[in-house]
Amino acid sequence: MLAEIKGLNEECGVFGIWGHENAAQITYYGLHSLQHRGQEGTGIVASDGKRLKGFKGEGLVTEVFQPGAIDDLTGHGAIGHVRYATAGGGGYENVQPLLFNSQSGSLALAHNGNLVNANALKHQLEGQGSIFQTTSDTEVLAHLIKRSGYLSFKERVKNALTMLKGAYAFLLMTETEMLVALDPNGLRPLSIGKLGDAYCVASETCAFDVVGAEFVRDVEPGELLIINNEGMVSERFGFAGGNAICSMEYIYFSRPDSNINGINVHSARKRLGKQLAMESPIEADVVTGVPDSSISAAIGYAEASGIPYELGLIKNRYVGRTFIQPSQSLREQGVKMKLSPVRGVVEGKRVVMVDDSIVRGTTSRRIVSMLKDAGAKEVHVRISSPPIKNPCFYGIDTSTHEELIASSHAVEEIRQIIGADTLSFLSVEGLLTAIGRDDMSENRGQCLACFTGKYPTEIYPDTLHPYEKELVR
Questions:
Q1: Which among 12, 206, 392, 450 is annotated as catalytic?
Q2: Bridge partners of 390?
Q3: Residue 446 pairs with which residues in a beta bridge?
Q4: Is the domain of 330 the same as that of 417?
Q5: CA 280 to CA 271: how far, in whole Å?
Q6: Does residue 433 sit in the same domain as residue 318?
Q7: Could you count the other beta carbons within 10 Å of the beta carbon of residue 248?
């Protein structure tokens, strides 16, 4: 899922349920809890055991699913998706779940992640006669399944999954079953829950809390789950390739009340802040965080440093996330609309501003400027992640080095650009220690590619922008 970078943008979110009489309604609430993962489009496909019916549109969950919109989505099984447009761009046709109908039955697909060999597979499939209806990489899986020579649907899915490279958490649904697959590196989060006798699957465990389901376990890398009226069966389609959960799930993407591979996100972010305070202390009067994703880290920094935490920045709850805006000019204007400094807190004070990341530097520069305009005597910026120096090819739209400020600027240069009095980033070692995933013997690995440039999978040349091909090996 590659696109021109506009900031650090969300991945997508998926939710599915099988065995509940109000499957579509439950899916609606599940998607609502995952809205932070994508705000450009959403959809639900439901199965009544005989046919699949879907409804989707561009916009937020509450905008697309107006009263009565899902009344026709009856049945005991449903899958849903919230989308941030990356691979293939936006447009109604790319909103998921994708729904395919044929004489042998129907298939619905929902996908979180990015297939790094999607272009190569599309060229191959088109050469064999396939005609793609969307520009999304997700559609590749449907064509691979259809062209597989295996007799059973399960084996066709397994065969197709072995051809995919990259990051993917897939939900597939036919009239009679729901299948769940996670890539062999486990790059995307995916969990299983239980709601009565029904099985739920979600990108984040916060969705289970919202719908009243009980967390069962995380989906394992390379695992295929088959869920139908007989229950749930676990099989493997690939060997685990060295776990590499996306580090940004802990730093930024996931909701604080979610647990990712057994680690609570809020607690992890607090530890990131504490580690940051240990690595980069500073004399100051007040600590504040950039709402919302940096609040936990700011609290941790304050606790470890002994500097009081204060609400120095207020978020306007009626403005969407600024980096979701499709144009850079709107995104920059959105910073002013979204955040306001609290003059009574920061005026005349030495302020530690904790944020989770710096991508282009535009937002950081504007926030530092706002704090100083509100009377802050000093602004010391502390970032609870290492510098993002390398593009991501697994579902975050940071596709080139050129658009990452840390790729071409040293820390001191970035400090000058954003106008901070001091600037420090968390170390990679500190990140691993704070999150609690530095014990690799327990398969608790993380993807650090955006910090280190070491990618857990092969990166295909036709996935890259032309001037990136020599930089990524």
A1: 12
A2: none
A3: 245
A4: yes
A5: 14
A6: yes
A7: 25
CATH number of the domain encompassing residue 122: 3.60.20.10
Beta-carbon count within 10 A of 145 CB: 20
Closest CA to 393 of 100, 114, 150, 154: 114
pLDDT at residue 442, rounded to an integer? 41
Are both 232 and 284 inside the same structural domain? no
Q: What is the DSSP letter of 170?
A: E
**Contact indicator for 391, 450 with CB cutoff of 8 Å:** yes
Q: Which of 180, 189, 183 is nearest to 154 (CA)?
A: 180
Positive or negative torsion for Cα 317, 321, 327, 331: positive
Q: Tell me the three state secondary structure of residue 268.
A: helix
pTM: 0.90
Q: Strands 313-315 and 339-341, how do they pair?
A: antiparallel
User: Which helix (H) or strand (E) covers residue 302, if one does?
Assistant: helix 295-305
Structure tokens at 296: 């936990």
Question: For 406-451, how does the pLDDT look when each residue is reduced to its tens digit (9 = 90+)?
Answer: 999 999 999 999 999 999 999 999 999 999 865 543 435 899 999 9
Does residue 120 sit within a domain? yes
Length of the chain counted residue by residue: 473
Q: Running DSSP on this structure, what letter comes out for residue 201?
A: E
Instruction: Determine contact, residues 87/118, Cβ cutoff 8 Å.
Output: yes
12 tagged catalytic: yes
Q: Are residues 214 and 338 in the same domain?
A: no
Q: What is the enclosing helix (H) or strand (E) of 64?
A: helix 61-64
Contact (CB, 8 A) for 236 and 209: no
The token pair at 336 is 């002013």
